[in-house]
Fold this sequence. Notes:
By secondary structure, this protein is of the alpha/beta class. The chain contains 27 helices and twelve strands. A hairpin with a 3-residue loop joins β5 and β6. The radius of gyration is 30 Å and the shape is globular. The protein starts with 5 loop residues before the first strand and ends with a helix. Residues 197-202 have low confidence and may be disordered.
Amino acid sequence: MxxxxxxxxxxxxAKYQFSIPNYQRSYAWEETQLELFVEDLRHQIKxxxxxxxxxxxxxxxxxxxxxxxxxYQTVDIVDxxxxxxxxxxxxxxxxxxxxxxxxxxxxKSNYICHPEFEQKFKTIxxxxxxxxxxxxxxxxFDEAPDSQSSQKLIFARDYFCKHVKRHExxxxxxxxxxxxxxxxxxxxLSTATQIFEFQxxxxxxxxxxxxxKSFLMHNVHLNSKxxxxxxxxxxxxNFESIFRDIEELSTYPRTPEEDSILSYYCAAFIPWTDNEYxxxxxxxxxxxxxxxxxxxxxxVSWINSFISNLKQTYKNVLxxxxxxxxxxxxxxxxxxxxxxxxxxxxIKTYHEDDxxxxxxxxxxxxxxxxxxxxxxxxxxxxxxxxxxHLLWIAKKFDSSDHDWGYEWLFKELSxxxxxxxxxKRMKTNIQSPNFYNNSKQSALYILWxxxxxxxxxxxxxxxxxxxxxRDIVIPKNNAEKLSLEHIAAQNNELSKHLVSWDVDDEAxxxxxxxxxxGNLVLDSISSNSSKKDHAFNKKWQRLSESSTYLSQGxxxxxxxxxxxxxxxxxxxxxxxxxxxxxxxxxx
Length: 587
């Protein structure tokens, strides 16, 4: 390890050529961290105006010595890459934005691209082309950002362009060049695990996943009698796969956070009591301590198995989202948007289902969707109702054990839908005059399912192509997003009419019928807005004769021929029809 630990950014770049290995997380800083970076520089400039001797310390680096190239030593950045990458983005942006910066030629050759040794700082491979062209300006073409991390690189550049004033650049660059840094340069990864188990470096706080990775590497090093370097490289390879899957997962809607997936995995596969699964590092440490009497090989073997299965879990979650068009039962859960309590069980059933087409996983999703809609959506139970039992099911479920296999699992999930008087609560809410306000998300989901039921030939309709889950979750634009439409609107002339839903309950229409299920219909936001609050008869042409929604086109069948208008009787007729649909599909 180098004796020259405390150094400046200028001296560091004069001595080393940097690269970020692919096993590292890609660039992740966002506006909060970028704002702090700029404000730190401004604060330090003010401080040095008063006390010129007060140094500016920007953090600690852990560097892995790779090889020498000419007068430069090439190093991998093991820790501190987010801040150092941001420093490069800031300097490169300054060179583009403010040509009068002193020593600009030296800065370009020392930080950006040396005339002989080329690029001085490389990101992970998949982002480096974008980094070279869009940030460093080495290549004379614009490389489009094709990943979340490369988009964040561009965002950082644009943030600095927008928020740093022209006159500020020279002083800020000088401050950065002279900033002090603790640089630990080590010759092997085993030593790295002994220096830091993890480090924050005033940037984004380490995630639980990153802390677990470092903790496991440290324990592999401690318990490896030989070839620990190879074992650590294997761990790096597995986490490279995990980080890339996390980045791809972020492109899908309504996905769990990376730390949540780690906790879900622990809840499903690691023995726990109370809420231990919420503290993965502590739970893993407990497992490792329990293996100490079996020796080092047992510990290393358990860690390797844990990491391998964890990698597969992140891959499985990504594959589930990739297959949303085929896994409609899961997609229905996504639309309901109450996935969190089900994730440990989703992860475990998908992992253990080796059937073609994931039949058992689909069956489990179907039962979870029923409970979610009935308990949370229609019975309006509190959001944590059933959570502890769902966790217990996930922990106990074992497809290879007859007593705790799929038959047991399906029975447990089915039984939950009758707990807490759910059927009675459901019926009460479905018939409530405040159904719209009580259950908007569930009403939208039910009417979306009903529209697709009609499009599949239900109620003797002609078959049409079904509406996609995307129309609710990720529409092409806000105007095309599906929403709820009141057939008779709140400001409609019918609103203040006295009506009766049941005997002796006469009240104004807006209080007794407006928000009933029978007065709601599926529509797009743009189409909904165009109808405004017109009387039903003025909407009629749009709703029935020219609508692309079958559930709008059939409204006329609920109207009494005698009245030929949308009134309390029509709403009652439609309410009965939709209630029967709910009973048939969700029981």
